[in-house]
Specification:
Length: 332
């Protein structure tokens, strides 16, 4: 494995988010939740028992009330963008039962063995959300057995898998029952495993990884000096990172406000159409906007006829007026 693909929690964070200092309350809440999670581990219990531990842990660390966490179809767990499970899923989680001491979990991924069943299962969940359900709201994907955590940015999966035409074709054939097998085991071995191997050959799947065992001393230690080690971990698992939400020092938030205000001044608006973002003339035109003022003056003074290649802006006079006025607003 190329070790440059493995990111420590701090390396996986947005550079601006790295500078955000957690509050004392956030640290104490995280420590209590993480200790309860670790103390609840029981390898003799079922996966469902451990899924419930994960839900409780995440709810206590910033998700409760704002982001529903539950199973979704056959996906082990999903973190949703909204407080209800009917809202778009933002994070998909493949949860494995913790291994018994000294006995590695055969299906679990390892830093030196990513192409294991856990990642193959996660890939199937991802393709069903991304390709079948057309969910463009995914942000991160996670594999965990509570002790070990592996986190992928969805953009990694987009480049490595959603843009793999061979994989997408094979996935659709499998879902439609047109491939060599219909059981998920066939998908994992014959479709997912080769696709992951192809991606690894071109280094397309970087991931963040940590083990809670490495932080247990800091979690159980009352010394505030050790709490500095917990900051990156707390932030890596936060809604701000996993769901890519705005945060206090997020310069992109300022850019977004500026962008929205600029559209308003021009007389445009951003809308969603079948998962795509489109910029269009406001549904209720603002007479005071630059665009509407330009359209009015071009029309009033018969300037459209003097525009070279006016026909290239549209088939009708209103379309041409809009096209010329918009270009003036943008370039002028």
């Amino acid at each position: 494995m190329n070790n440059s693909l493995l990111l420590k929690p701090k390396q996986a964070l947005n550079k601006a988010f790295r500078k955000v200092k957690p509050t004392r309350d956030e640290i104490e809440t995280f420590k209590k939740a993480a200790i309860a999670l670790l103390d609840g581990i029981n390898p003799a219990e079922s996966e469902e028992h451990h899924k419930n531990l994960l839900i409780a842990f995440l709810n206590q660390t910033g998700y409760q009330g704002s982001h529903a966490i539950n199973t979704k179809d056959r996906t082990d767990l999903a973190i949703h963008h909204g407080p209800k499970s009917s809202s778009e899923a933002g994070v998909l989680i493949e949860a494995k039962r913790p291994p018994k001491e000294g006995t590695p979990q055969a299906e679990m991924v390892r830093p030196d063995r990513l192409n294991a069943k856990a990642l193959q299962e996660l890939l199937l969940y991802y393709l069903r959300e991304r390709i079948t359900a057309h969910n463009t709201g995914l942000r991160h994907l996670v594999v965990t057995d509570i002790q070990s955590w592996y986190i992928w940015d969805v953009q990694t999966f987009e480049a490595a898998f959603a843009e793999d035409k061979k994989l997408v074709k094979q996935f659709k054939e499998f879902e439609e029952g047109r491939s060599g097998g219909r059981k998920t085991e066939y998908f994992y071995k014959e479709i997912a495993a080769p696709a992951i191997a192809r991606a690894q050959q071109v280094a397309l799947i970087p991931f963040a990884h940590f083990s809670l065992a490495d932080y247990e001393k800091a979690l159980r230690n009352e010394s505030k000096k050790d709490d500095t080690k917990l900051g990156p971990l707390l932030k890596l698992l936060s809604p701000q990172h996993l769901l890519k939400l705005p945060f206090a020092n997020d310069f992109n938030t300022l850019d977004r406000r500026f962008y929205t205000e600029l559209l308003h001044i021009i007389g445009l608006e951003e809308v969603k159409d079948k998962g795509r973002k489109l910029i269009r003339r406001k549904a209720k035109p603002d007479p005071a906007s630059l665009l509407e003022q330009a359209i009015e003056r071009i029309d009033m003074y018969d300037k459209l006829e003097k525009v070279e290649n006016a026909a290239s802006y549209g088939d009708t006079r209103p379309e041409r007026l809009f096209g010329v006025a918009l270009e003036l607003c943008i370039t002028g």
